[in-house]
């Protein structure tokens, strides 16, 4: 009679069948901690519970409520309770994952707690409501380049997530706020990866910060035969070295450009915003080159060879290949690599311009004097978003030659910049004495025509 009586009592004394679920894990073990007393180790009983769950997120669908929560590394399973008819009632007692779905008919009040063999954490009620698709709205650092040991603040804002995690150089920070920031001390190149998880979706974004470490020059015993770059202790970008006269211009992996004479003496050093990946070109006493930034963008720069004065303009997208000079049609003499004067500057560069090809397929034409954008072109659709790694060339027929595949070269027709010698002289003189801050074009870039294509 006793079993029957207990069964009837179970179905009549409670308001819901949920209370009939059994929590097998309620028989917890006792946790002990070792202590040393007079050289003798003894174990004393202690209370040991998992960490409280940080976030419990709810998402409403047309047919159900979908719950997700941040998992704790020390929880073995989770217990869910549902607030029904004025009281908390057990609905799940041994969930090893971090989500649960419930029918909408009984309300939207839930709570969760994690447990292990020694006990359970405190309850966490719903503290995040999901109403939008998963989206990382912002992820940034306050600095892109810092000194060694300097603090960097990384900030983020995420919508539609149930959990946000951050990885910094292999160190994981979990269950972060959906909007927040974290200060990191950078001692070396630092990479950041933000991951947002929510209801079947995952979004990730990455960025990095360059650390400007003190340069250590290694002392090397010199031999009788001296090579200019051998004993400088520089991490050189070999394919970007260029020599002019008695000087060598040496880019390095840490974002510097050095001028070195043939006696291994560094004449000047210029800090760049990124790394020069390809050999610069020389025109009228200037070096023209592209710089790749950690952020994925690029810059076109010009450096005066005698004093290291440098001017750079952002390209808005990644540029790896060096630029190419589109020469003056009326100029018959080659540019003087060393001498520089106002007269040859205007005569040699009046109609000349600088062409730069980004990895997205955008071709910018810059003024040699001011690096302002004169024209914008774009490669045909099939050739866009194809990394241009090797340097471009310009043929006598004004064709831009690009390696568009490992074994393929394509020639694109570059339109003429226009005619009218007098107006060009006036605008060049005007640009020489004034600086324009408007480098953008209001019209869509012109699509370049293909002149020919050959397989190598």
Automatic annotation (TrEMBL):
Keywords: Signal
Signal peptide: 1-24
Protein's name according to its UniProt entry: IgGFc-binding protein N-terminal domain-containing protein
Lineage start: Bacteria, Pseudomonadati, Pseudomonadota, Gammaproteobacteria, Alteromonadales
């Amino acid at each position: 009679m006793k079993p029957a009586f207990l069964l009837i009592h179970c179905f009549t004394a409670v308001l819901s069948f949920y209370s009939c679920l059994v929590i097998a894990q309620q028989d917890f073990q006792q946790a002990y901690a070792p202590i040393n007393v007079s050289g003798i180790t003894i174990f004393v009983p202690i209370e040991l519970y998992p960490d409280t769950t940080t976030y419990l997120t709810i998402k409403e669908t047309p047919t159900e409520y979908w719950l997700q929560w941040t998992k704790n590394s020390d929880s073995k399973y989770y217990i869910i309770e549902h607030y029904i008819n004025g009281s908390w009632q057990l609905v799940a007692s041994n969930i090893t994952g971090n989500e649960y779905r419930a029918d909408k008919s009984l309300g939207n009040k839930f709570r969760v707690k994690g447990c292990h063999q020694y006990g359970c954490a405190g309850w966490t009620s719903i503290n995040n409501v999901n109403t939008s698709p998963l989206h990382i709205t912002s992820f940034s650092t306050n600095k892109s380049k810092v000194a060694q040991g300097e603090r960097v603040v990384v900030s983020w804002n995420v919508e539609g997530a149930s959990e946000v995690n951050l990885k910094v150089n292999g160190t994981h920070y979990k269950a972060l706020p959906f909007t927040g920031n974290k200060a990191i001390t950078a001692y070396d190149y630092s990479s950041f990866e933000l991951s947002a998880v929510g209801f079947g979706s995952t979004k990730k974004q990455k960025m990095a910060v360059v650390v400007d470490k003190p340069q250590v020059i290694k002392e090397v015993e010199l031999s009788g035969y001296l090579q200019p770059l051998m004993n400088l202790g520089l991490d050189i970008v070999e394919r970007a070295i260029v020599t002019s006269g008695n000087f060598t211009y040496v880019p390095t992996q840490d974002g510097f450009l050095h001028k070195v004479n043939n006696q291994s003496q560094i004449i000047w050093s210029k800090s760049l915003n990124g790394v020069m990946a390809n050999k610069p070109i020389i025109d009228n006493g200037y070096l023209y080159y592209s710089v790749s930034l950690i952020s994925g963008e690029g810059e076109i720069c010009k450096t005066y060879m005698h004093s290291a004065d440098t001017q750079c303009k952002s390209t808005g997208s990644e540029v790896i290949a060096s630029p190419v000079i589109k020469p003056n049609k009326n100029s018959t003499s080659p540019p003087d690599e060393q001498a520089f004067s106002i007269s040859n500057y205007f005569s040699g560069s009046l109609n000349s311009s600088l062409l730069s090809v980004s990895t997205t397929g955008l071709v910018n034409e810059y003024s040699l004097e001011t690096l302002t954008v004169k024209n914008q072109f774009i490669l045909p659709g099939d050739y866009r978003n194809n990394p241009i790694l090797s340097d471009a060339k310009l043929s006598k027929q004004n064709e831009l030659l690009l390696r568009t595949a490992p074994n393929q070269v394509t020639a694109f027709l570059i339109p003429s910049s226009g005619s009218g010698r007098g107006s060009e002289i006036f605008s060049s003189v005007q640009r020489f004495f004034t600086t324009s801050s408007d480098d953008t074009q209001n019209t869509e870039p012109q699509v370049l025509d293909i002149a020919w294509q050959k397989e190598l």
